[in-house]
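ok so heres the complex, two chains, lmk if somethin looks off
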Amino acid sequence: MDFNLLIGGAAGQGMETLSATFSKILQKRGYHLFTLQDYMSRVRGGHNFFQIRFSENPVKTHRDEIDGIIALNTETITLHLPRLAKDGFILADTDVSHEDSRLLKIPAKSLAKEAGNPKVSSSAILGALLKILGMDEAHLEDILSIKFKEDIVKQNLTAFLSGYGVPEKRFEEPTLQQEETMLIQANESIALGALAAGMKFYSAYPMTPATSIMSYLVKKSKEAKVVVEQAEDEIAAINMAIGASYTGVRSMTGTSGGGYSLMVEAVGMAGIMETPLVIAEIQRPGPATGLPTRTEQSDLLFVVHSSHGEFPKMVIALRHPEDAFYQTTRAFNLAEKYQIPVILLGDQYMADAIRTVKPFDLSKVTIDRHLADETPYREGKEYKRYELTDNSISPRLIPGRIPGTMVNADSDEHDELGNITESGEVRNAMVEKRAKKFALLQEEVLEPEYLGEKDPEILLLGWGSLHSPLSEAIDLLNQEGTTTYGALVFGDIWPLPEKKLRDYAKRAKKLINVEQNYNGQLAQLISQVTGIRVHGSVLKYDGRPLSATEIQKKVKEEAAL
Amino acid sequence: MKKTEFLTFETAWCPGCGDFAILEALKETLEELQKNPHEVLVVGGIGQAAKTPQYINANGFEGLHGRALPPAAAAKIVNHKLTVIVDTGDGDSYGEGGNHFIHNIKRNVDMTHFVHDNQIYGLTKGQSSPTSDLGHVTDFTPDGVNTHPINPMVAAIGLGAGFVARAFSGDKEHLKSIMKAAINYNGYALVDILQPCVSFNKVNTFAWYKKRVYNLDENASYNPTDKAAAFAKAMEWGDKIPTGILYIEDDQSYVEKVPFLKEAPLVDLPVETEVIEGFFKEFM
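and the predicted structre for the whole thing:
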């Protein structure tokens, strides 16, 4: 079974609860699922929808063709009908007006009224849906008690059972594996990664689609003993995070492109101060306010080159929730090892998609603080915060611990002690010291993940969240059997890992970059660093995520040129 | 008292600058309060006054222009055992950093904000500052400043600051007594320190201030907990300028409102992995 359900309506109609409840039921039954969210930048009205794709096998990404629609209003049907499969179905309340043999009306509102609460009508719809899909009522009461307040659990259950009684069963439920999964969004994975890494201070200013990192952390602040501070603006947010890191805790900030634009001066400060910092930049279409609730990968070159002057930084593009969790924990180790800012690049598509993943394994997470041994300083050794060492990494101490030892941090060019200097000689030494850390990072970066046939004729190049649609697109393309395809999907992206790229590029006939932006920013970066040029591009910038079938179709067009 | 702990450094300031007196007063204040240099953090932004962290033997954080308050607040939240002092100028505090000035009053982290207020931009060579008086002629305002000066005292009291004081660099003993009270105050404390800029401000000179300032703290009938009286004093600017503690009010500071910071400073709290693992289960 590979089923794709769309739940649509206006903001405020309860789609979110319906979708969350159904997703939880699927997870508990043992399905794998991928839920795509499409919402407008408004609190009420407009048109929003969820697409829940589920299967007994792992689901890699969303799919365009729909097998079932739950329409909370008539508009949902008109908008999405062209994508509905011929043998698909539409579930709607009796007040939805549309003529189609596939439409199945459920008197949800009157069933809800009978259950004693007109607001529980979506549970009647849910009941009907489960019946059609051949599912029983297992786990239902438990899940309803998680999702609803105690007094309305019973009403929801009654409405559910009434709805369950209405339609006929249409599908046989497949055999499901009972392995445990986590049902999670990438932003929640980032937040969990930060907590697992021992982050103690998070300061940010709310900005879609990064806000959900903060809202999760706020919820867990007291239990995890983590300070979460809503700053007055993004400039304060990053400067606070740097101050917190200087004082000795792991700290982080998060934002989207607009907020990151405000932060960049301080990114350079973390660079010259050599203060570790992790920043999550969850992209949305720009410039300026752009499309606030939609997706794009158009900040890559901006982030790679962000802030004036020259200093080392690392940029990691997150590929999926599991990757987001482990890469976030790794980012904290790298930031402290090299005393640099590390930027995690996500995007709205990945941030808001909810999917089942293998449970995170805390035993795979290490916390390496890379702080200097305090002993020699306690015995009187002079402390030089910016000491010129063989590997160019200076000893980092936490201020306030050792009598007589001061820790200086300076955004001006400084000498080894951290005092302002204008000496050309010292300046050269410090620029070279910081640059040398970039060379070390080049050794540290992880090569991109390779997907597809062993020696592909066509090599696709992508990064970040496109990992999900690309992995399915590669399967679809190779199933056609005419040409062999492969894809390199970059996670670590700055410094750019070059080995696999050079190796595959040499052997493939054609290179095609697949990106969610207009300029083909990854292709530009690759060309700048390696001189390797692509032969074709699949680019999308309407704010909507690329699907596997879209990639399949467009790649074939480009490959034929 | 012998000044040794906080040491003396070569500075980049002009001879005769009010910064020297403020720096000396700060060192003596910290010593008289028996602070250990390694437990003191001095934070500056950018500007002539903001170079202070360089010239005192304590932990130092020299940040970006206008951005001294956010890292200072974070430092105190992370380790509330540190004495955190922001020492910077009027441009840094009220101009480039205006939003942080507003919101750190609201945040009320226990730290002390010394503003070297010379009503002029020194480091960029003589432009008007947020506190320059109306009519002040500078290179950038050849017809005189035609916008109203910010009154930091009125602003701070109005925004709800719990410790608002003005001092004069030319009266070291009074300055020190205000500094002590400000550092001992539990919460955000603002001290606006009037000081001459010998190079670029030919109007608000040492003599100009000297003639006008008077010591409000010697006036036994003045009640600094009376907000209305404080506003009246804060608005006094001209032939007479009051110095001293204009307003003081007890309040809970930021750290006291965070329950788990009662156990230990944030920097000393361990990572509790079993708690994190519990969070994973909520997604299963």
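quick notes: The longest strand of chain B covers residues 241-248. thats all i got rn
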